[in-house]
Design goal:
This protein has about 260 residues and is α/β, with parallel strands linked by helices. About 35% of the residues lie in helices and about 25% in strands. The structure holds zinc ion (ZN).
Length: about 260
């Protein structure tokens, strides 16, 4: 059985650790630093068989060189020559096998242009989406356009509702504070915010979320909802769902 646990890293990153109870070979997603990964692998008697990379930002690849030197894992990541150490470069529609499971690759540009996500079907399905979709929010647009990010999020939202969402940052509290401003009459946002405050007071991760929940609380997946559009209209264009998305994203940048 595959289990997934967070390794907290840097200020608010999660490096997701995948392991099977039948094998000592683990996998990590987006190792922004090596030390906390090595610490957990040694403590648990594991070795590193594979690494998944979603995009080139240093807080996602910073630990890669040291982990390669120590464990020689198979590294799977995007078609971006800026990232050293990738053995298998993958893009839209590709599949790869990790931990005995099939992972489908989706290209999700917006936060960066090289951003990919990994989806593995199962009960439940799992999604590793880096800095594209967060609980209650989405990544900033450092390289891509609002149009690209809107389509990337639509693609992720089309996956099954029970898909667990393993995002790379603990941003939920700040995201839901914005969600409450953008979607003020949504009781699911209020409930999620209360739950998130309680979890964070106890220093517990708020992830993974799941897609069904995100469709109810994440304003960036709710651009077609009249209440969200009405609030966004006070901050910019809402001529289309995509325009509403762009307005929400720009508003959140200065929120
Ligand atoms: Zn990033």
């Amino acid at each position: 059985m595959l289990s997934v646990t967070p390794i907290p890293a840097l200020s608010d990153n999660y490096i997701w650790l995948l392991r099977q109870d039948t094998s000592p070979e683990a996998c990590v997603v987006d190792p922004g630093e090596a030390a906390p990964v090595i610490h957990v692998l040694e403590r648990e008697g594991l070795t590193l068989g594979s690494v998944l990379i979603t995009h080139h930002h240093p807080d996602h690849v910073g630990g890669l060189a040291e982990l390669i030197q120590r464990y020689s894992p198979k590294v799977i990541g995007p078609h971006n020559p800026q990232i050293d150490g990738i053995d298998e470069r993958v893009g839209d529609g590709d599949t790869c096998r990790v931990m005995g499971r099939r992972f489908d690759v989706l290209e999700v540009p917006g936060h960066t242009l090289d951003h990919i996500a990994f989806f593995t079907p199962g009960i439940p399905p799992l999604l590793f989406c880096g800095d594209t979709l967060f609980s209650g929010g989405c990544g900033r647009l450092f390289e891509g356009t609002p149009e690209q990010m809107y389509h990337s999020l639509r693609e992720l939202a089309a996956l099954p509702d029970d898909t667990l969402v393993f995002a790379a940052h603990e941003y939920t509290l700040a995201n839901l504070t914005f969600a409450q401003a953008a979607d003020p009459n949504n009781p699911d946002v209020t409930a999620a915010l209360d739950e998130t405050r309680r979890a964070r007071d106890l220093d517990r991760p708020t992830l993974p979320s799941n897609l069904g929940r995100e469709k109810n609380i994440n304003p960036f997946l709710r651009c077609a909802v009249p209440d969200v559009r009405a609030t966004a209209a006070q901050h910019g264009s809402t001529d289309s769902d995509q325009a509403t998305f762009a307005t929400l994203r720009a508003w959140k940048d200065s929120f």
